[in-house]
Amino acid sequence: MKFFKECILMLLSLLMVMGQRHSRIIRNDFVESSPDGAYKWAIQTDENIFHEQRGYINGDAGLLVEGQYQYTAPDGQVINVLYRADENGFHAEGAHIPTPPPIPPAIQRALDYLATLPPPTDH
Asked: Max CA-CA distance within the chain?
């Protein structure tokens, strides 16, 4: 739990140094972790910066963290990011995040074919 409190303090520090003026915290909800390791928190500033996160132990897979944050970019675009962190890494979604181009059909057919082959036995 100490790690998460340190993360919150780091986030608060980051919010304080963003921009020319200091943001004022207008919402700060923090729910202490439960005995099973679950937690949640949310924070919002007067400059419409918002971040919320929740986490829990996901069986043998370990800690699962889900959350979102939102702010207004200098160009006026509202940036909203949904994220999830689990045993497979960090995954973020947002309209502003670039996506890779589609896989060309010939390469996809080759990948599909390779997936049907048995695994090699010569380690």
From this structure: 62
Mean pLDDT score across all residues of the chain: 82
- In the chain, the amino acid numbered 94 is G
- Contact 60/80 with Cβ under 8 angstroms? no
Give the confidence band of 110 by pLDDT, cuts at 50, 70, 90.
Answer: very high
pLDDT at 1 over 50: no
Give residue-wise pLDDT tens across range 44-66.
998 889 999 999 887 777 888 99
Q: Which residue has the tokens 């897979």?
A: 61
String of DSSP letters for the chain: -HHHHHHHHHHHHHHHHSSSS---EEEEEEEPPPTTS-EEEEEEETTS-EEEEEEEE-GGG-EEEEEEEEEE-TTSPEEEEEEEEETTEEEEE-TTS--PPPPPHHHHHHHHHHHHSPPP---
